[in-house]
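Quick one - first record:
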Amino acid sequence: MSSPQTPEPAASDSAALTALQKLIEVVAKLRSPEGGCPWDLEQTPQTLIPYVIEEAYEVVDAIRSGEKKAIAEELGDLLLQVVLQAQIASESGDFTMAEVAAGITEKLIRRHPHVFGDVEVNSVDEVRQNWEEIKATEKGETAESQIFSSKLSRYAKTLPPLMAGMKISQKAAGVGFEWENIEGVWEKFQEELGEFKYAIEHEDKAHQQAELGDILFVLINLGRWYDLDPAEALQETNLRFIQRFSKMEIFADRPLTDYTLDELEAMWQQAKAQLAKQKQERDNSGE
């Protein structure tokens, strides 16, 4: 197999490279002991963790909204976190932004031999298989020798819980640890629901928490069987709840705490009906 070659940057990329270099210089100035920003100087890789998570979620929200300006802005905020982490690391001699960029570039080339080498693939599945085999080789393993539970553990550590649950259940199903049919999943859900009810009535909080987790995990598997995304589903439910609550506040002529539960429920149903009607009108108009 011939050695893969790094693609040369196109002339049109010069503006992007210039802008990125300017960002790196600005962040370095913010971190400078002489004339830098006190807040930026106080930051460590650990203190910036919440911002990395927050900015990543804000990127996702912007992408879902479809607003191009918002997407570009949020991607910039996330890029800032990458540059900040690299700047702090460079100050202690750990690594630099150049090493970060070079590392991911080399990894992409190495894991895409069908693009940058002479390997031939005939399907997306073959691409995934090659990726996993190359990844295992990089870690000094073979795909067969990898400890499966270690792979699952990485998902639990690095992904949000709902996404991790989906990934773990997909991988477990891939090695044959799977229900024979959807009826088995529903039976498991009823079983776990019963155990949760029993824990609520008879056991301590630790057992109650564990049983709640079991129900959620089975619900994730139900979503997988029906080709539904639990994280996306919950996000949509959260947004619907907020929309309906916002309508309730519009209907109210006094603080919501002054209403009875029956009155709040009536406003909730009114809000729900109005939003459904508006959605129907938008669908009919093709918006």
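second record:
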Amino acid sequence: MRNVLRRTAASLVAAVLLATTLTASAQAAAPRSGFDNWACKPSAAHPNPLVLLHGLGGNGPGNYSFLGPYLAAKGYCAYTLTYGQATPLIPVGGTVSIVQSSAQIEAFVDRVRQSTGAAKVDIVGHSEGGFQSLYGPKVRGYAGKVGKVVALAPPTHGTTFGGLVSVGDYLGLRPLVDQVLRDFGCPACDEIIVGGSEVAKLTAGPIAQPGVKYTVIASRFDALVTPHETSFIREPGVRNQFVQDTCPLDLVGHVGLAFDPTVAQLVANALDPANARRVICGFGPPV
């Protein structure tokens, strides 16, 4: 199991690093007026600032180099962080225990609320960040600070990590990531597999919390969080959707969800359903 988990984490890190590289030009070109701008004040149209949570093996600036500026251009004050770093010397997060990371995330939620003067935040989470967007309001008990949650491919009920080893091998990053795992390990990896300890906490009883509106978005072509429907929350008041329900030809993969113009529009509609717009189908990275 240890070798499988090491390969799993290696592949997740590799995939996120690839996606970050692919979107560097988008980061440079996109407007950043409301993205990670601590002088930003929420508008009447979008009173809840956004907290954007990255995936395992990623970091906030890289994971949200596309979606962050996109949402800022929609008029949101949007903020991200890199949580769960084993060491500040390496810009990779989410590898420490879910419990430790969730405490950092709650502190960041409070920082955003204090800076903006907002009573609540909305949370957009990708992969492990999606898991954290569900875990924090329920397990840490701060649902009263959250208005909406949009979770992209969260391993809600645990994941089997299908196909990850081949992804890591294909990208040729196994030696580098193996060194990181050898030095620091990956407690979070063991906690979000099927039967993982923090999955058990999240799924003991209802996941959705009163007063919070939830949307879960997944891809039928996700090779990392598997089986695909492990992301969904089959509870009243939760909207579960596949990208392909709207755009059947979009073959976006797990990492690509954060860099897909189709998904960006779905996220925007979930955050502001009263002003939802017709989605113009695009294509995300298949990784």
